[in-house]
Each structure stands twice: as structure tokens, then as C-alpha cells.
């Protein structure tokens, strides 16, 4: 089927890398909390995800005074990576194994951020979880420790011109197809007539509603 002259279609769609994850285990949590005041953090080891190098910053007493009763978590892009990168980040508490962990609902934060290794390498969740809630949650907190799962998905976009104009797109445009195939021609002509009939009916109804009566 040949498309009508002068009609073309392109598509813009989001693309995503395969989601990759890293687990950060935190042990001797209360000692670490004592060692780090508000606004100070400890780091995970660097890890690879979506072809880039990352770290997790954990602030056991909050990243600033407004959230000092929370644990703050941030994902950090290696400074060597330049350019904007759209990243879907999900940080989740990892449940304890067995029945104990299965009794509790999942707990996670998820958001898309724009990272840039030079200008904005750090994004995350300053109010990830209240300390009191975490420490009283046996499904996640056990033996003075807990674990966090970090899922990283890099989002992109692609624009493509479609090599062939599809029948459904011609129908949406209200364009009559001039192809030589009789079945196709009847289909498009009928679709175009239907569109024109709906338009004419709408115009008549609209004008009828506002007709001036004498």
C-alpha cells in the first residue's frame, strides 16, 4: 500500500535500559548513627548500573536539620559522567528472610531524576523513613541493622519516521487513500466519508442550537 502524497508519520517514544539493582547492607546501625551527626553521611562502595558508576549516601541522622529525625538516602552519579541523564530511581527496604519479613507490606520511594555528573550528581529522598519507625519495624530492622535495595533505570527517548503510513493513522487524519488496491481504497474512502459525516452533523447541530428565531 502506497501512502497518499504529502502524508508522513513519525513516532516519539520513551526507551528504558534494563533495570539493575544494588543492595546496601547496614550493620551496627546505632554505632554508625552515633558517629555521624546531622548532615553527615557514609557511602556505599561504588557499583555499576546502566553502564555508569554510582554510590549511595546514607545520612543516619538526616541530611539537614529539618529532617533530623529521619534516615535520608541519596543516589550519587560518578563525577566523570557528563551530560543530563534521566534516571528512574527506586529505593526500598529489604524485608527480613522468612515469615517475619513476609508479614510486613513493602516500603519504597520511587521518582525520576535528571542527573548530571558535573552539575547535579546527587538526588534522593531526605525523608526516606523516620528513625523511630525503622527501629520499631522487625520486618525490616533486625540485629541492629537493615538493608536497602536500589533499582536504577536510565530513561531515554527515540524519534523515528515510520516507513509506511498505516491505515489507522490515515483514518485519524481523515485522509482518503489513493492506493490502487480496491479493498484498501474502499476502506479508506468509507472511513473518510464517516469522518466528514460526523463533522457535518456536528456543524448542523451547533448552528441549530444558536439559530436566531423570529
TrEMBL record:
A single BP term in Gene Ontology: protein ubiquitination
Domain of life: Eukaryota
Pfam family, one: MATH_2
Signal sequence region: none
Native species: Eleusine coracana subsp. coracana
Protein name: MATH domain-containing protein
Residue ranges constituting the MATH domain according to the UniProt record: 19-152
Amino acid at each position: 500500500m502506497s501512502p497518499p502524497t504529502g502524508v508522513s508519520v513519525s513516532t516519539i517514544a520513551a526507551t528504558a535500559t534494563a533495570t539493575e539493582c544494588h543492595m546496601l547492607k547496614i550493620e551496627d546501625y546505632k554505632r554508625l548513627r552515633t558517629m555521624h551527626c546531622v548532615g553527615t553521611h557514609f557511602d556505599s562502595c561504588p557499583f555499576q548500573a546502566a553502564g555508569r558508576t554510582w554510590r549511595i549516601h546514607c545520612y543516619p541522622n538526616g541530611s539537614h536539620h529539618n529532617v533530623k529525625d529521619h534516615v535520608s538516602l541519596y543516589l550519587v552519579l560518578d563525577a566523570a559522567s557528563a551530560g543530563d541523564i534521566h534516571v528512574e530511581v527506586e529505593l526500598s527496604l529489604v524485608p527480613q528472610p522468612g515469615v517475619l519479613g513476609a508479614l510486613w507490606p513493602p516500603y519504597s520511594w520511587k521518582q525520576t531524576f535528571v542527573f548530571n555528573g558535573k552539575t547535579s550528581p546527587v538526588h534522593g529522598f531526605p525523608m526516606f523513613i523516620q528513625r523511630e519507625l525503622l527501629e520499631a519495624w522487625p520486618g525490616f530492622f533486625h540485629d541492629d541493622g537493615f538493608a536497602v535495595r536500589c533499582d536504577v533505570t536510565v530513561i531515554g527517548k527515540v524519534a523515528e519516521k515510520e516507513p509506511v503510513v498505516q491505515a489507522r493513522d490515515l483514518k485519524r487524519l481523515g485522509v482518503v487513500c489513493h492506493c490502487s488496491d480496491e479493498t484498501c481504497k474502499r476502506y479508506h474512502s468509507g472511513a473518510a466519508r464517516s469522518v466528514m459525516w460526523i463533522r457535518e452533523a456536528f456543524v448542523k447541530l451547533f448552528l441549530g442550537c444558536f439559530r436566531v428565531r423570529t
